Known about the structure:
about 130 residues
Amino acid sequence: MRAGAAAAAAGALGAAAAAAAKLALSPGGEAAGGPLPVLLHLSCVGLVFVCNAVMWTVFTKALRLSSSSAATSVTTTASNFISSAILGKLLFGETWTPLWWVGLAVTVCGLMLLHTAAPQLVQVPAEKKE
């Protein structure tokens, strides 16, 4: 797995954990009665812990594979924002405004610049021995 893909996966897992937490803590299901709503809420709580544990594992792997911790962190954060918006739309019916699309375009352009730029090698001067 490449560093960028691992970082993007970590962001998506973080968004999944947040969505599961929102589902776990949301009111509702009381009208159905019985143990099913309670079991669904508890399952979502468990999913929060699982998603977070896997997210941190994948994120640390991305840091290990990457030459830049900044690039990994930015990629994870951007992936989390985008994944959260998509999950919000799919699960909760949230709306996307034109400003959201502008923000998405800027985020994607920034990621493209970050991952396509050639790394600059810095020459470290050798110490003089006296």
